[in-house]
Input
Amino acid sequence: PQFPRIILWLMVELAIIGSDMQEVIGSAIAINLLSMGKIPLWGGVLITIADTFVFLFLDKYGLRKLEAFFGFLITIMALTFGYEYITVKPNQQNVLQGLFIPYCKDCGTPQLEQAVGIVGAVIMPHNMYLHSALVKSRQVDRSNKRQVREANKYFFIESCIALFVSFIINIFVVTVFAEAFFKKTNADVNQVCANSSSPHSSIFPNNNNTLEVDIYKGGVVLGCYFGPAALYIWAIGILAAGQSSTMTGTYSGQFVMEGFLNLRWSRFARVLLTRSIAITPTLFVAIFQDVEHLTGMNDFLNVLMSLQLPFALIPVLTFTSLPSVMHDFANGL
Output
């Protein structure tokens, strides 16, 4: 029925715009770090308008070329964040313990918010539709059950590989933050940054408060402790993550628009719409506030992603479990 369709579409659009805002924030921070602070945050936000056109230019060459470029960006992310992981040298036993034994010592509301945010950041709701919709781009004789089964097997393998690579990249990032910044105070970092002649040392006040880290400060601290290369490599990784996020948002946006509203827009119109909505509030925060507010906005958007997950998952699981729709291919228990 029309009413739930429009509600579900609006929820997915909200997630896509949120993810687009994160891409703009991440890219602006990365550009600021790569230029050693010479390009202000609002300048970085404006530059992200240009990367939209680069994406549309690549889109002309077809889906396979775009997938290859996408793979290239993910490889950059894996290599850059992997480099940080090797540089920081976390205790592997602790990493395994953290992966398989659930615990949270002295946790309160802020930690709960972070945990909820991590779920949303890792499992983007609109990507549920993207994985499903990319199936349509493959040439399969859908009247032949054997071919469909074989295709399903390869789609399953493809999704597993994609999710495994995403999982590894997320382990790299979370572990680097935990190992490099845990129990550090502002004074510790201020001293190390001053000794390494970092131009960013002023962002850490000389007091004994516990260091609070975000993607901007994270890059700065890595640069102070492990040399300038660590800062630049971190920024390149964030930039690659942002570009891949733009692509997934545009494609999934197009698929949900076709699916829920039967509307076919050009990709140019899609990118223009979501990017315009995403850039306006981000630009205001970048001009009138500081990087703290920009990264705080990022945390809020991660929580928003988590809240959107049921709106993407429940309908998809419901339909794929209906024998009347899926016949022999309905989900098991």
